[in-house]
Write the structure tokens for this entry.
Amino acid sequence: DPPVPQTCMVHGYLTSSLVDCETARDEVLNELGISVLSRMRSIDTDTDPVDHGFRTKFEWAIGDGNYHIDDEVFLNGWKAFANKLQSMD
């Protein structure tokens, strides 16, 4: 991560596996028509985030493409995604 952010971007880390994250994301898309993330990656096993229990990472850019998404749609998508991941644990 850069010491000083240069863009409107969020780096996120998830404790679920990449497979579980992709499954949860796809289920939310199929059920609600909401895509919360487009690309996620596994975290290398020899990095600091893994030492803290994280297994998947993503970058989420905030810009014109998602600026106008209604807050309720945004929250419904992320809540459904989190609930799917929680049910997989």
